[in-house]
Amino acid sequence: MTSFSEIPDLDADQFQRFAKLIHEKAHIHLKDHKITLLSNRLRKRLRALSLGSYDEYFRYINDEATAQKEMVHFLEAVTTNESYFWRTTQNFEALKRYVLPDLVKEHRGSKLKFWSAGCSTGEEPYNLAIEIVESMKNLGHFEWELLGSDISTRVVDFARTGIYSGRKIERIPENILRRYFRKLEDQDAYQVRQDLREKIKFDVENLFEAMHPGMHCIFCRNVMIYFNRADQEKLVNRFHEMLVKGGYLFIGHAESLQMLDTPFATRPTEEGVLYQKKS
Ligand SMILES: C[S@@+](CC[C@H](N)C(=O)[O-])C[C@H]1O[C@@H](n2cnc3c(N)ncnc32)[C@H](O)[C@@H]1O
User: Fold this and answer.
1) Smallest Cα–Cα separation from 142: which of 80, 182, 99?
2) In whole angstroms, how large is the CA radius of gyration of the chain?
3) Domain 89-276 has CATH 3.40.190.10
4) 82 pocket-lining for ligand 1 (C-beta < 6 Å)
5) Closest CA to 246 of 109, 108, 103, 115
């Protein structure tokens, strides 16, 4: 019997079939050179299910009896979830310097709504929550709510625990770590303060199906790099619809709206370009 590590990489046809399915379900666009990466990730599913070939797995994931349950694992296997606290701090600097003062002034008396779209294991929404709370020292108290969402069930479950260690937290300033986290006994790990954990709503959802109108600020960083240009445009225009007039979109440092046909207005700042809904 062949061991799982002996199963060769997907052939070109098999890769195309899986890539098409991944695009259909998550809009993730896998380039041809990802064939080894995808083979390695799917091999783990073959092992977990004791299936002997990718073709068998393709039938399994398309079989009405097993598709729904397996899709959760499939999407987990094909998404890349790297995240950590204090990632691209220029975004948070811009948030504190321009965006929050602007939103608080323009929407005085209303609850400000934030969304971390593609939140992975939760570092981004918790980081955002910390910056919001910190900003109240200067801006005074305001009401807010925050949604964190991702297509992968595993990372959303992880995010809900709010427990982090190692590289994920190494950039957090000491005073912030002390104020917003508690060290877990006998573990080299920290948990986000309970009141912040309770403040954030986490959901499993596909960004191309999610509909959250009335947002004041959307963070969707390091997610669009996995989509092709047409899907990036579709998504950015959906975000535009879901933002209130004057609302802001934050994207990752390797991402840009420059080549996309979108109505966002741009505002250059020392911390990078801000994207704002003007109309
Ligand atoms: C690299 S992580 C980015 C995490 C965080 N935004 C950051 O910048 O640290 C990308 C996340 O996007 C999620 N994702 C990819 N396609 C998605 C989709 N169609 N709907 C929702 N989430 C998606 C993945 O599951 C993954 O957790």
Assistant:
1) 99
2) 20
3) no
4) yes
5) 103
Residues of the chain with CATH 3.40.50.150: 89-276
**Whose CA is closest to atom 10 on ligand 1?**
223
Find the helix or strand (DSSP H, E) in which 274 lies.
strand 272-276
Domain with CATH 1.10.155.10 in the chain: 4-78
Catalytic status, residue 41: yes
Question: Known catalytic residue: 102?
Answer: no
Q: Find the catalytic residue in 43, 45, 87, 150.
A: 150
* pTM over the 0.70 mark: yes
> How is domain 4-78 classified at the CATH fold level?
Chemotaxis Receptor Methyltransferase Cher; domain 1 (1.10.155)
Q: 120, 154, 220: which to mutate for ligand 1, most atoms within 8 A of CB?
A: 120
Per-residue pLDDT of the chain (279 residues; tens, 9 = 90+): 567 678 999 999 999 999 999 999 999 999 999 999 999 999 999 999 999 999 999 999 999 999 999 999 999 999 999 999 999 999 999 999 999 999 999 999 999 999 999 999 999 999 999 999 999 999 999 999 999 999 999 999 999 999 999 999 999 999 999 999 999 999 999 999 999 999 999 999 999 999 999 999 999 999 999 999 999 999 999 999 999 999 999 999 999 999 999 999 999 999 999 999 997
Closest CA to 56 of 123, 4, 103: 4
